[in-house]
Amino acid sequence: MKISADFTVVPDDYAKAAASEYRVEGVPSISFPFYIDEVDPEARYLHWAFTDPDSIPVCGFEWIHWTVANLPIDALMFDFNDSHALAIPPDFSRQMPAMIPEAVQGRNSSASHFVGRNADPALTMRYNGPQPPDKDHDYCLHVWATKQPLPGLNQGFWLNELLRGLRESGENPDQGVMFVTGRA
């Protein structure tokens, strides 16, 4: 599987320099677009995690920006003859609950009691754009494709539950990763 985007640096609308109308409580909330290509033809569901390993020296843990599970591939508009078979559109995080209610989004690090944020799902269970406080950070988007949905994942799951579900699925999930930079 190949994961790609039309950028290597997260554009301003999806990151630290996002306009106020693209934020929830000051946090960028419009998710960026990306492509998923060369998916195993037997796969039926997508799952992903967008994280910041460069946050470890800053806050003590890898910041989770966005997690998604059990997204039916058939629910996405795609054309196998297109060079980018599956396209995740901009602002998918906010639109997905209405468009594809069977897919679920997990909690991001804004839900952590270490951060002290409120419980607003628009902030804690959606995309949180990059806002590196100290220097440019490199971010990882990991995408997995499975034949079956991962059981037991509901809205607001935690990343460890997604990873456990992938491990315990009995499948060897198709996977891909993309790295992008977020500007300080």
UniProtKB/TrEMBL annotation:
InterPro entries: PEBP, PEBP-like_sf, YbhB_YbcL/LppC-like
Pfam families assigned: PBP (PF01161)
Gene3D superfamilies for the chain: PEBP-like
Family annotation (SUPFAM superfamilies): PEBP-like
Coiled coil regions, renumbered to chain: none
Signal sequence range: none
Similarity field: Belongs to the UPF0098 family.
Protein name: Phospholipid-binding protein
Species this chain originates from: Bifidobacterium merycicum
